[in-house]
Amino acid sequence: MTVAEVEPAEGTTGRTWRRGVLLHGRGLLGLVLVTVVVAAGLLAPLIAPFGANEQIEGANLVGPGGAHLLGTDEVNRDIWSRVLFGIRVDLIVVFVAVPVGAVVGIAVGVATTMNGLADTLAQRLFDVVLAFPVLILGIGVTAVMGPGVVTVAVVIALAEVPVFGRLVRTSLLTIRALPYVESSRVMGAGTWWLMRRHMLPNSLEPLTVQLGVSMSVAVFIEGALSFLGLGVRPPDPSLGSLIRDGIRNVWQSPTFVVGPLVVVSMLVLGFLLISQALAAGRRA
Amino acid sequence: MTTPPSVRRRRSTASRVTAALAALAALALVATGCESAVEAQSGGGGDDAAGGEPQSGGVLQVGTTSDLVPAGLFTNSSQTTDVLVGQVYDSLIDYPLDSLDPQPRLATAWETSEDGREVTVDLRDDVTFHDGSDFTSDDVRFSIETWADPTWTVQFQRTAAAVTGFDTSDPNKIVLSFDRPISNLLDLFDVMPIIDEESFDADATGQTYVGTGPFTFESWTPGSKIVLNRNDDYWDGAPYLDGVQINIVPDAQSVVSQLRSGQLDTILGMTNRDAESLGEAGGFTVHPFEGSERHTYVGTNVTNPALKDVRVRQAIALAVDKERIVEEVYRGVGRPISLPWPEYSPAYDAEKDATYSRDVARAKELVAEVGDIPTLPLEYSTALANHEAIAQIVQDNLAEIGIEVTLQPNEQPDHIEKLIGGTFPGLWILDHAYAQYTPSTLAVTAYPFNAEKNSSNFVDDTYKADAVAAWEQVDPSSPEAVEAYAKLSDDLLENLFLIELSTTTFQAVTSNDVHDFTWSKRSEPVLAKTWLSS
Amino acid sequence: MARYLAGRLPSALFVLFAASVLVFAVLRLIPGDPAVTLAGPDASPEAVDAVRAELGLDQPILHQYVAWLGDLVRFDLGRSYVLGVDNASLVRDGLTNTIVLTLAALLVAVLMALALSIGGVLANRRWLEAVLSGFNTIAVALPTFVTGTLLIVLLAVVYRVLPAGGTPPEGFASRPDLAVQYLLMPALCLGLPAGAALTRFLTESLRTQLEAPYVTTAQALGISRRRIVLTQALPNALPSAVTVLGVQVGALLGGAVIVEAVFAWPGLGLLIESGISGRDYPLVQVLMMLSVLVFVVTQLLTDVANAWLDPRIRLGGAAA
Description:
- The complex is a heterotrimer.
- By secondary structure, chain B is α+β, with helices and mostly antiparallel strands.
- Chain B folds into two domains: about 55-290 and about 510-534, 3-Layer(aba) Sandwich (D-Maltodextrin-Binding Protein, domain 2), CATH 3.40.190; about 295-505, Dipeptide-binding Protein, domain 3 (Roll).
- Helices cover about 35% and strands about 20% of the residues of chain B.
- Chain B: It comes from Nocardioides marinquilinus.
């Protein structure tokens, strides 16, 4: 149909990605940071000198250096190995929980935006979830489900649903009002066709930007929940629980907290830089 | 034509920015110059005058990690309560820290009749409550009756309830009568604070606490602080301190920082690791509450099919590295044990106490005899600072002999609920106290040990009979009593429904400006003679 | 304006109602029996039953909900199970402390955002931009619970400049000079991430404004960059910044849970945490409802502020 030629929606995202992330110094830096951390997490079994939960006789709160790059913790485990394995929990949170929340949010958003009553209902429900600050939501959910990786993932996914639902709604409404979409509608294009052909591809950009932000926030939420003792169950490590252990031992082993803190900052920073670059690429 | 309005607008925005910057600068100025809040808050300071003459004055700033729970006032449920009860109330007698030889306090003398069914207690006649009313035998009666009331759920409730008659005709003497002899009445006299009948309803809600102790209750701000003032009319001489302020600092790391920064003088509730490094830092003194032992144990639900076989429980007891727990978690404050009795207890037997010393090879043999053991849950309370590390060590030790456990952290209320109901499905870790009192006390009252109904769901007629036999011994140090306690010890070791790991104690850390800080057998800090140097 | 506000009210009330159902239902799903907790470790079953009846926990669940909602509407907030004190007085004390802390944090955030974004845009130097953006990103990337502890170690223990925590002993009003010192660290910790987010947003909008045609015209007329930024770009960028600020208030309330714990600041965050771990249903219910109420009111205020600052939104918003 003729309408299709008005604006080739496909490829916009690809271009943004290249222009924003790869060519932009900021985006490249972000990508490198995230890749390094992800690779370290995936390769943990190969590169970690000790097991994540391996207790080494006599090595109680040893300082960094020698056999233990970052030292050992209060139950004689190698911190460097625990950091490597701990990344994996955050990878689950970032690459499973956030996308799941995003997909559910987008699905709800798409399904309800075009229907007045359903739209109002969905928006109000989003309001209800958003009305609880994430940490308070987290404390409540953990109280019911008990602490653990699954609980952290559920909290994060739950918190992301309204964020993406709102976002997809806004961009759908904006795009619907654009002249070329308006004109295809006038020319008799069906709602679902429009949605598939124009509206969804075009709303992908803001959604990708938000995905980056959400992923960095997810690393934080994991950390904060673990700090409050609501994160992964011992003995398994996560970046947040390692920071908590580091803070607890700040007087005995001041360097303990540095390792996990650097990795968390790398992840948060990496995702932020990527999403900033995407946003900048979009405007350029 | 366009200039005047835009100039005006520019000025207003610019002036707002300037004002903001000025505010920032003012903030910085306040933070650096003027009066410092740090100086204003530290009562003490200067060099330690250890061993010098006691000085009057100053408010002792105490930091604890939990808030007051009025309903748990008499259950030793938190260290905040311990500080409050220890300063505001007096007990009838005091046990010294290293023995069970009772010393007078509000009671000056006590005598048991020939048949053991009547006890006469002489009381001090120079004591008044904080509200001005006199302390009389009627207050002792009211205190015992309150203690016997199940709503307060106190230790020794059964002992208080065993009192069947009160003679209070002489205000300075009370005669208690019983249907049968009771062995641990003096334990009750040590533990029970004397309360005032008229004001007690207010105690129950946290509005006021009226006792006869060295400090009077001024106020409680939930989540923040409790303020106590000096009792100038204290019968044992007014304390040196003007007052005590209990500051509630929920984060265990922050409470340490506040002590290090000089904002607090004394802290409770930190991990043993933190206490140790404060001791090494200089300027601080660590006080392990010796004589008021607590015992860390692994509980087992003996109705769990995997734990039914005593050999599995023995394997666990032999596998756990108790020495390591004492050294690395409790930092040397405590010792590995197989039985709960402290060294000064008439029930103590060094040989028996070493029954389950670590023997991994033997533990593996036992596991091999039994065969496959399914994965078991090991639960612990998040409220106890040292227990997460202990749980992880136990888990590692058990994995070594082929018993897999999964760790489950519980909130304290849930943990206690399971303890009371006996609903832990597998293994759990907790501390118990009260082994520092008359040995029979444990087997007739404490939840993990109670022969009638215990957290392990362990039911055994021999154990029940031995528990009652021990309780009926009037003189805890007589040869008959020692023999009864030995039987009890054998029951515990043979059946092993509860696996003792280590003794430990609460600890306090004080700055070196704090002098003559002591504690009681009830784990309460005692501040009546404490003073601050400045 | 009144009609605009009236249009928003039904949905705000719906959110409050739905949240009340949710809060009530979720708290009943939490394992652990408050009656057992309260009765203590050595209570007999009879004692536990007595406590349960006293708390009304033996009533049917719907009955409990309706009774609770009725009390709430009449501002009867009930009594804390665990602390044994009226929730109203707990909330009042906690709220005061949290409001003071949150306002101080907002002040930090706004001052930081204004100074950094205007400064950055005015200076218009690439290196300065890079430094500011770097600082900003790091401020976002550092978790509050780490900055809090490190600040305390540095400024209260190593250099004894500021108090390590707690609220000023003589209150906020009687000695403001001391109060500021108690507030400085927690407010900085809480406000820094919000400030960084706001700075980023404001810088972006200022830049976008500077690319608008009217700016080109003004520049062609020879008006200085500083004047354009302060008189034209800033006022135009403010409405959307207010929206972002509104969202940040929610984030601040969440962040307060951690900052209050680290700095022993007896506010609502601490109260809700201890309430949940103590299974103190009535207190937690009230606090959760309060946080929802704050969110709803903040949203309304943000909408109103926006409508006031920008008539287009008012007209457009009414249609949506």
